[in-house]
Amino acid sequence: MIGICSEDPEYASGLMLALNRVSKGEIEAMVFSRPEALGTCLPVHEPDLLVMDVHTQKPEEEKMRDREIKEIYGIPVCRLTEEPSEDGIFKYQSVREICQELLSHVRRPGGVGSQCSSCIAVFSPLGRCGKTALARALAGKGETGGGLCVELEEYAERSVHSEVLYQIKQRTPDIYEAVVREQVMEDGTMVLHVSGMYSELRDVQAEDLKWLHGQLLQPGRYQRLVYDIGSASLSDLSGLMTFDRIYMPVLSDERSVRKVNLFRETLRERRMGELLMRILPVELPEDAVLREDARQILKCVEACA
Question: pTM for the full model?
Answer without folding.
Answer: 0.65
